Every structure is written in C-alpha cells, then in structure tokens.
C-alpha cells in the first residue's frame, strides 16, 4: 500500500464538524440503501466516521464489519462505538494491506477515502468484493482529483473515470457517479 497513507496521528480530523456537515454520513448511507438488518463492511473504517452511523442504521438485527490496517484506529473506533452504544453491533477486524477475513458475505460494502492509497487496486478489490453478496451495493467515497489543499496530493488521487473503469472490470453494474462537493465524490454500483 501506500503512495499516500493516512497518518493515524491526525485521526481527530476525521470527526470534525465541517467534515460531518459536508459528508452527512448517516444520510449518505441511508440514501444509498443501507437499512435495518443489513450486514455492511466498512473497509478502512478508521475511528468510525461511517461505521458508527452504519451501526445506528442496521441496529441489533444487522452487523457492521469495521476493517482497518491500523490497530490505533480500531482502538479508537471501539471507544467511539461504546460511547455511541453500538459496540455490540460492530465487529472490529484488523486487516492485512490487501485482505481481511470477514467470515461471511455482506449486503453493502463501503470504501471511504481508501482506494487512492492502494497500489494494486484490482487485487485489493478482488479480495474484498468477494465478500459482497450478488445484487448488493458497493459505495466508494474519494477525493476529487484536483488541487484542493484538503486531502492527499493530486497525483495520489484517483479520478472518477479511472475508478469507474476498474469497477466495470470487477463486474459492478449500474455505476453512478455523484459529486458530494468540490472536494469529494462517490461512486456506487451493484455487484452482479
């Protein structure tokens, strides 16, 4: 991994109010079909920006598999999940750089601000998408490939077109690209 990898010492930036206001994680997940009882894998879960709202949506009937390579991020996620009273709904999984064993297939898979960090994007997606049930949703949130000061350098970002082409190769259908704002975009699709 890692032309550019998020520095875990900057983890507090992930929960700032500006970021919450821009991304609206609860609304974003609901708008893309996450519902009570679903099983979701949050790949690159960090300290829980999406995993905690996901757990609040799926409730005790569902499950959140929060996957991260950084032990420190998973530790913080456990603390944050306990504070939000959703720790029983989340399974915390320490991953290798290219794979984790989720033990079961999921209804929804989220990658937030992660794909640009991966050197071999196709291998990475092959490994993870194998845990996504057929006819289930994949959602990827990424940095727009521009010169904004927030986020990684432009040369480390992945363009919408490049990411869309990779997903098409991985048999993801009904691909939709949406701007979140001038700094961020998302791509969603269905695994065939």
UniProtKB/TrEMBL annotation:
The keyword Transferase applies. Residues 35-169 form the Methyltransferase domain. This is Methyltransferase type 11. SUPFAM superfamilies: S-adenosyl-L-methionine-dependent methyltransferases (SSF53335). It comes from the Bacteria. CDD domains: AdoMet_MTases (cd02440). Coiled coil: none annotated.
